[in-house]
Amino acid sequence: xxxxxxxxxxxxxxxxxxxxxxxxxxxxxLLLLPGLVVLRIIGRLSMPLYAYMIAQGCRYTHDRRRYxxxxxxxxLVCQVVYxxxxxxxxxxxxxxxxLSVLCICAIDNAQRKSxxxxxxxxxxxxxxxxxxxxxxxxxxxxxAVDYGxxxxxxxxxxxxxxxxxxxxxxxxxCLSLGGLQWWSLAAVPLMLLxxxxxxxxxxxxxxYLYYPLHLAVLYGIxxxxx
Length: 226
Fold this sequence. Notes:
Elements: H1 12-31, H2 37-43, H3 46-60, H4 64-86, E1 90-91, H5 93-113, H6 116-139, E2 144-145, H7 148-161, H8 166-177, H9 188-192, H10 204-225
C-alpha cells in the first residue's frame, strides 16, 4: 500500500525516536531512579507511539509474516534472558506487540479469504490473546503481559480505524490501567501529527536492537550500584 506524500507533520522515524527517548527515560526511572516519578510520567508517551508504529508497520510492510517473526523472535530471546536472569515470567512489550500483529494477520486473512477456517483462526487468535492476557495471570503467579489486553488491542484498533481510533483506544488503555497511564494521553497530539511518511532511511533494526541493548546496560548499571 503506497504511503501518502504529505510532508507536514512527523514522520514514522521521528515518532519512533521520540518513543525511543521517552522509553529510555522511563526505564532509567524504573531501574535507576525510582524516586523520580516524573521520569515514569515522561515514559508513558513511549508505548502509544510504538503501538501506532506497529499498526503502520503492519499496513506497509512487504512481508507481514517476516515482520511478525522478527518481532516475536526478539521477544522470545528477551523473555529467555529475563527468565534466566531473575526468574521473571513478566512478558515484555515485544510480546504484547507480537500478539497484536498475530491478531491483525489472522483478522486480515479472515476478511480477505472469507472462509470458515480463517474466520475460526481469527476468533482463536483473539480468544487466545484474551486468555493469555487476562486468565493466565490469575492462574500462574508472576505471569503478566505488559499493558494487558488493551495494550494488545491498541495497535489492532489503530490499524483498522487509523487516526479515528487514537482517542478511543487511548481512553480504553488508560481506563484499564489507571494511575500514571493517564499521562500517556499526551502522546495523542503526536500521533495525530503523523504524516504517513517513514523518513529518509529505514531504521527498523536500530529500534529492534536498541530495546535489549539499553535494558542490558541499565540492568548492568543497577547491579553496580547495589
